[in-house]
Amino acid sequence: MAAVLRKLIQGRLPALAGVLCRRSGNEGHLFLNSSGSTLMQPRCGYSSPTESVIVEMDKATGVALLKLNIPPVNSLSLPLLTELAIVLDKLEMDKHCRGLILTSAVPNIFSAGLNLFDMMDKPNEHYSEFWRAVQEIWIKLYGSSLANIAAINGSSPAGGCLLALCSDYRIMANNPHFTIGLNETRLGIVAPFWYDILQWRVHHPPPCLHLFVMALVFRLHVHHPSAMTKVTRAYSTELKISVSYVKQPINWRSHEIYK
Ligand SMILES: CCCCC/C=C\CCCC/C=C/C(=O)SCCNC(=O)CCNC(=O)[C@H](O)C(C)(C)COP(=O)(O)OP(=O)(O)OC[C@H]1O[C@@H](n2cnc3c(N)ncnc32)[C@H](O)[C@@H]1OP(=O)(O)O
User: Fold this and answer.
1) What's the ipTM?
2) So where does this one cross the membrane (predicted)?
């Protein structure tokens, strides 16, 4: 998985597909479509370009790779949010799935944030539905029982940044052209209160959080089962702290605990 992440953050997605393919014996790729059905792929490959969320399941590790795939900028439209919610539900229910990596299939862009056209010239019912879909993604990602990592392989302004913040851990490509942050405040759009909580979690990680990620890498790496056992045994307390930290239930009133 470490190699997988390294390749992801270098933006070499085709190479990544090859890595997963080799490790899963050419039969580990599952594709979920918005209706929730899964299709086994007999060989390494990508789903059709019309799929807005491509899912590649590596059966050997139980890691699902989710690639947002709505060019040109992966803006979070109602259809994309809906499809992502269905995919997250499916993975949550899949007993073989242990973790997920959220990334982008669009070169140089992770996500441009909320779709601006979903926020203008629409009836009030649309705004309600849209905002419900936005919050649902936050709840599903942040509340997921799966280990989840955002591999930010491109620019990620506004809601794209918030999407990444919903993950347990973030790794971003080291590219000066990639931007991330809350530029939407310039448009007068205010991030919701729970952004503050997500932000605290990122800015004040416990020292053992990186250890958690390392252990995660080992745990999911079936080729090093003995190393995995050693790490998890040796650092079991730190692991528990890290897991409870990233999976901490949110209570707005008690969020002072982050300070
Ligand atoms: C769902 C997650 C859960 C957590 C959510 C939490 C909280 C809720 C959100 C709270 C507040 C968030 C608000 C927002 O997200 S508002 C959206 C703000 N986004 C932006 O301002 C991004 C603006 N876009 C850019 O900065 C750039 O486009 C770029 C992403 C850096 C890419 O640059 P570049 O490669 O140069 O592409 P272009 O600028 O030429 O854009 C290509 C076409 O894409 C259209 N576009 C860009 N962004 C959006 C967008 N957000 N929505 C819809 N369409 C977008 C752009 O107009 C171009 O279209 P054209 O080719 O037809 O002109």
Assistant:
1) 0.95
2) none
